[in-house]
């Protein structure tokens, strides 16, 4: 025979999760590492769009502006060297080749 477990019983027997303790200096160091951009304004880079960005042309782009990180990846505003179109891209889509 199986015994029926009440939801309240599960709740009361659950082990509470504890937040990991991080010192303020470690927390500041982590945020500092995320904010450092690999590339500089004016630098010419090769852009490779993702599979869901088929509309964007890969090629050479000039960095116009550094943007804040989103989703753990720094962002840049780039301008296409050939046609002048601008777009916002993630750092993981760029290379200095």
Structure in words:
- 20% of the residues lie in helices and 32% in strands.
- By secondary structure, it is of the alpha+beta class.
- Strands 4-3-2-1-5 form a 5-stranded antiparallel β-sheet, with no helix packed on it.
Main features:
97 residues; five-stranded antiparallel sheet; 5 strands; 20% helix
Computed CA radius of gyration, to the nearest angstrom: 23 Å
Main sheet record: 5 strands, antiparallel
Order of helices and strands: HHEEEEE
Strand-pairing-aware structural class: alpha+beta
In what order do the strands lie side by side in the largest sheet? 4-3-2-1-5
CATH class value of one domain: Mainly Beta
Task: Tell me the β content.
Answer: 25-35%
Overall 3D shape: elongated
What percent of the residues sit in helical stretches (DSSP H or I)? 10-25%
Task: Annotate the secondary structure layout.
Blueprint: H1 7-13, H2 24-35, E1 44-47, E2 59-70, E3 73-80, E4 86-90, E5 94-95
Q: Care to give the gist of this entry?
A:
With 97 residues, the protein is an alpha+beta fold.
């Amino acid at each position: 025979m199986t015994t029926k477990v009440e939801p309240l019983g599960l709740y009361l027997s659950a082990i509470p999760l504890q937040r990991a303790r991080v010192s303020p200096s470690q927390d500041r160091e982590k945020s500092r590492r995320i904010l450092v951009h690999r590339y500089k304004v004016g630098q010419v880079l090769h852009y490779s769009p993702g599979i869901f960005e088929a509309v964007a042309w890969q090629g050479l782009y000039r960095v116009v502006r550094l943007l804040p990180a989103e989703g753990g990846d720094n962002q840049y505003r780039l301008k296409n060297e050939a046609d002048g179109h601008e777009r916002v891209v993630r750092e993981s889509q760029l290379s200095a080749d």
